[in-house]
Design a protein that fits this description.
It is built from 11 helices and 11 strands. It is of the alpha/beta class. Strand 1 and strand 2 form a beta hairpin. The protein is globular, with a radius of gyration of 19 Å. The chain starts with a helix and ends in a 15-residue tail after the last strand. Mean pLDDT is about 80; it is low at about 1-60, about 65-85 and about 300-310. It binds S-adenosylmethionine (SAM).
């Protein structure tokens, strides 16, 4: 195991997975704003150790960003294994829906357990999330290889599978085997054969090959290890490959989702700034979410040997 992971595990023992029954909380929260929930920024402004932690966090994130570049490699060559500082995570005040673990001053949310799966297949999603517009914006081509990370029951996986066609493939990645079982059942019902379930870890999606596009719908804010996950995703992106985030708009108080389960575009851009990713466009046509597209920065190093051989 890399030294930085050992150090991260030692330094952040609080990152043990919480099996919080988000399903009921999530279904309660839909349809209403949660007015009393303090935002992260307002949570403890008078707390001077908090300000100190923020400053420390910024420096650690910068150091981590630099280390990520070293990890991913320079001038197209594989970087040697080396000791890296622990990612820029900071332990802070734990709010009701959060983990108390902060990344770029954002408290990481608990992830949704498989008990919430019915919420993912609610019919209202067609109107609330407009999957037709999402697929239009993804611009997938027949033959593309894509990944739906944190795919849940596959609400987007089968739609992506239609777009990439029989010659293409969609990897539906999950950390919960129960979700993968549900995904397999749904794909069978729909007679979809080009969606492949993958059991990833909280630090690595374990993508079996390089991909043209990675989609994360309502997932990124739940990653317990966003730095490690994104580094692993970048390594598995083909040159020019795209990473697409769909998150509830954190800028819009009218979006009836708890603050920790929303993200602003600015926050996403800040967190991606340490990675070999360039912001391409933010699509604002969805009713409650934004769709933020990044592309692998041209000339950025690629460590995986299969980049040229695999689709
Ligand atoms: C709110 S659900 C969204 C599911 C799906 N994207 C959708 O829109 O229907 C978030 C999912 O992300 C998964 N998840 C959280 N962290 C993950 C990680 N590091 N890798 C893969 N999946 C993850 C959770 O298990 C959960 O099923």
């Amino acid at each position: 195991m890399n030294l930085f992971l050992q150090r991260a595990a030692a330094e952040f023992p609080e990152t043990v997975i919480h099996f919080c029954p988000l399903s009921s909380e999530r279904s309660e929260e839909v349809g209403r704003v949660v007015p009393d929930e303090p935002s992260i920024r307002k949570a403890h402004p008078e707390d001077s150790p908090y300000l100190l932690r923020c400053a420390q966090n910024h420096f650690r994130c910068l150091a981590w960003g630099l280390s990520l570049s070293l990890l991913i490699g320079a001038n197209g060559r594989a970087a040697p294994e080396r000791e890296l500082p622990a990612p820029g995570y900071v332990t802070g005040r734990k709010t009701r829906d959060g983990t108390g673990k902060y990344y770029f001053d954002r408290e990481i949310a608990h992830y949704m357990t498989h008990e919430g799966a019915p919420w993912l297949d609610r019919p209202e999603r067609e109107v609330e999330e407009r999957p037709d517009l999402v697929l239009q914006a993804l611009q997938l081509k027949p033959g593309d290889v894509a990944a739906d990370i944190g795919c849940g029951t596959g609400y987007f996986s089968w739609r992506m599978a239609q777009a990439v066609g029989a010659q293409g493939r969609v990897y539906g990645v999950e950390i919960q085997q129960e979700m993968l079982d549900l995904l397999a059942g749904k794909m069978k019902e729909r007679a979809v054969t080009n969606v492949v379930g993958v059991l990833g870890t909280i630090e690595d999606p374990k993508l079996p090959q390089s991909v043209d596009l990675v989609l994360m719908v309502d997932v990124y804010h739940e990653f317990s290890h966003p730095a490690e996950m994104m580094a692993a995703i970048c390594r598995r992106l083909k040159p020019g490959g795209r990473v697409v985030f769909i998150e509830y708009r954190g800028e819009d108080p009218a979006v009836p989702i708890k603050p920790l389960h929303k993200m602003t575009e600015a926050q996403l851009k800040k967190e991606m700034s340490v990675l070999p990713l360039t912001h391409v466009v933010t699509v604002e046509t969805l009713p409650r979410q934004h769709l933020v597209i990044f592309q692998k920065t041209e000339g950025s190093p690629q460590r995986d040997k299969d980049t040229k051989t695999n689709r």
